[in-house]
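Project standup — Tuesday

K.O.: blocked on the structure for the chain from last sprint. Re-posting the sequence here as requested.
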Amino acid sequence: MAPAAFSSISKIAKDTLGGYSFDSHKFSLKGSKIGDFGVTYNGKVNGDDFKGDVSADYAVNDDVKTTFAMDNNQQLTAKVAWKASDDLKVTASGLSTEFDNAKVNVDFANDNVNVKTTSTLAATPNIDIAVTTAISDFVVGASIGVNGAEASLSKWSAGAAYTTSDYQLGGVYNGSNLTAHGAYKIDDDKTAAAEVVYGIDNDTCNYALGYETKLTGGKAKAKMASSGLCSFLWATKVSDQANVTSSYQFDTTGNSAAKYGFKIDLSA
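H.V.: unblocked you, prediction finished:
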């Protein structure tokens, strides 16, 4: 099995602490596939702002898959994914009106290494490269960003994670922040996690504690942050064709108003 991608270092803790959505309401409707063709409609309401798109997926063959999406501003997004081999996948995507923002992703993964690259197609492209490798129960890796216009390094980070069947410990350093994650599987259904972020430049330290438990057909989550924000999430499978997720957040310091959001996923 390939090592975890760099973005997935400390994945257990990140998944336990993340996934909340506030101040917006989302829904998706996925139609039944007809052969290799499928259609999905997505919508998002944020106050008076509405964004929606309809996307069509078509599998040319087992190795080539395409997606075309049109949003409510009539912008067309196209994506083509090609599985060149079991180890190599190439994906190209972009808006029809903004070619300079089009991107090409090249992902290579085998039992020893996981490499992900992203490049814009502008005349002076921005390139992101992330590499990880596994050493026993450790995953170590690094990520860099290259500014094509200035031919300079725009960002970098390095990290590692140690994973067993019961817990996971990991950390990432990017020159400005040192982030540490920990997750512990209490049992098959319950997970506790923590995150600590130390700001090198401004000498600050923030933390968050999270808990997740699986429910019949769903899950429940809670998170408390050092800022005073407390968040809750509840997700359930209403039927074989419907899933509902709701999130709620309040500020124990009273400095901000409560927030909530929900998401409905329907499939034919």
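K.O.: great, moving the ticket to review. The first strand starts at residue 25 and ends at 30. The mean pLDDT is 92.
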